[in-house]
Amino acid sequence: QAKQERRGSFRFFEPAMDQLLLDRVVLEHELRAALANHELELHYQPLVSCSSGAIEGYEALIRWHHPRRGMVMPIDFIPLAEQTGLIVPIGEWAIRTACIEASKWPARQSIAVNVSPLQFRQSNLPEMVAEALLESGLPADRLEIEITEGVLISDTSDAILTLSALRAQGVRVSLDDFGTGYSSLSYLSSFAVDKIKIDRSFVRPLGQSEGAGLLVRTIIELGHHLGLTVVAEGVETPQQLAMIQGKGCDQVQGYLLGRPDRMEARPAVTGASPRGRADRKPELEATR
Ligand code: C2E
Ligand code: MG
Ligand code: MG
Ligand code: MG
Known about the structure:
This is EAL domain-containing protein. With 288 residues, the protein is of the alpha/beta class.
C-alpha cells in the first residue's frame, strides 16, 4: 500500500524533479513576459567574403537580458520557446526587428535570421515576412532565412510550399548547421535553398587531420556543383581560415572574424560608415 502511494506521488515529491519542473514553469512565465518587457535583443555576427574580406552581411542572434539571471543564451531558452509555442511571437519579433535594423545598414549588406521548425510550419510565415519587408523598406534580396534540416523532416510538401513562397518574394534561404542532420544529401537535391552553412563541427578539426580537410573540400564542391553559396561556420583560428579560403569557400563566419555583438557596440573605425562598422576584416588580410 505504501509503495503504491509513493509510486503515485513520485513525480510531485522527488525533490530534483520538483525543482526542475518549477524552474521550467517559472522560466516559461518569465519568457512570456520578456517580449512585452523588451528584454530580448538581437546581436549581429559578420559574414565575411572569403575573396575580398568585405563584410557581406550579418547573422542576427537572439539574446535575453533577464532581470535577475543576466544574459541568457539561446540554447537556454529557444528549446523551451519551441516546446511552448512562444517561439512564434519571439521569432516574429526577431524577423521584424532584424529587417528594421538592417534597413539602416549599407545597401550591400544582408541580414540572416534563424527560423525554428515550429515557426517555419506557421502557414502565414511568408506573409509575415512580406509584411516585415514592407514595413522596414528592406529589399527582399537582403534578407536570408536560416533553417535547419529539422524544418524539412516533417510535412515535406508544406515545407516545399513555404520555401517557394519565400523565394518567390526574392528572399534567400540558407541551410544552417549543414551536415549535422539526417539525410543532408537527399534534402539538398529536393529542396530549393540558396546557401549551405557548413557546421562548425567540420571546421574545428581542420588542420588536425587530413580527413577533416577532405571532408570540408568535398562539401564545398558539392555545394558549388548544385549552384549554392557555401559558408563555413565557427572559424576561430588563422589556420582554419587559411584552409577554408584555400578550398574556395564563399563566406566565413566565426569568432576570428567577429563575435556576435550589438551594432552600436562595435568599435568605430576611421573612414568606416557613419554607424562605425569596419568593412574589412584585418584578420582576413593577414592570412592571404
Ligand atoms: P546558429 O544559427 O548555428 O548560430 C551560430 C552559433 O555559433 C551562435 O551561437 C554563434 O554565437 C556561435 N558561433 C559563432 N562563431 C563561433 C565560433 O567561432 N566558435 C564557436 N564556438 N561558436 C561560434 P548562439 O548565438 O548561442 O546561438 C545558438 C543557436 O540558437 C543558433 O545557432 C540558432 O540555432 C539559435 N538562435 C539564435 N538566435 C535565434 C533566433 O532569433 N531564432 C531562432 N529560432 N533561433 C535562434
Ligand atoms: Mg544560424
Ligand atoms: Mg549554425
Ligand atoms: Mg546551430
